[in-house]
# Entry
Amino acid sequence: MQIYIDGEYYSKAEAKISVFDHGLLYGDGIFEGIRAYNGGLFRLREHMVRLYESAKTIALDIPLPLEQLEQDVIETVRRNNLRDAYIRLIVTRGAGDLGIDPRKCAKASIIIIATSISLYPEEMYENGLSVITVPTRRNHSEMVNPRVKSLNYLNNILAKEEGNHLGYAEVVMLNSDGYVVEGSADNIFIVKNGVLITPPAFLGILKGITREVVMELAQAMGTEVRETVFTRHDLYNADECFFTGTGAELIPVVEVDGRSIGTGKPGEMTKQLLAAFRKERTETGVPIYPCCQYPSAS
Ligand code: PXG
# Structure
């Protein structure tokens, strides 16, 4: 495995960063999770733009222009000879001293890891997930804004742990007003009377790239899409429900807090969108390899 750190490539054993890095000391940094399918990087530019927007909001200067870092992502996947991959792109505040002051960190560090991905079992896509709402509320937008994909993921990890504790693979988070916002690492959608509904970005969510793609696909199918607030009551009484994310892609939810959603099986619109998403992701990626230089598909 070849791991990129600040423009150089290292083996897994040699890929190391400072213990004084504020990414480690304080979760001071940002990241992206990107997928490659069939030799193409899915929605690469959208992920890059989100990374630079996260950086702007936390006043972090990424020491490379977007276009060059984008090329470095492609090169890292290439060097690892991957056609299907999960790419973790990380920018930390860099090494400073033990105080929190970011001015002590002279230069941000950039890390790119390209590897294969462990997926939810196919059976979960066919049967759907049972989930619960958890006590930990999503960060308030005026505190650590969920729009920033920051290295400080404790809010999500606590929610995930509350699900683990009770045996649930994913959870639904509410914001401090009690509105449904998202999963621990996924966006949430419901379907009611043929309308596709998802919480608006201002409510305090990560504005998922998969979420955007799914909204576009639904609109192209002629479905009405609404970004609007909804409550647990609306969730329990939805006809269908699903999560979206780079890792999960689009996964049906069939039970929430012991209430079955709709028929208790993945709904028709969910199944149609899952099929459309699977087609989209394999056909629209940014090519990693120039023509004719593909490594053999193994
Ligand atoms: N909300 C949150 C809080 C997330 O962390 C999403 C929504 C979905 O966004 P995208 O852009 O991926 O559609 C995420 C995704 C993983 C993984 O391996 C995913 C995320 C973070 C860490 C790991 O699935 N974020």
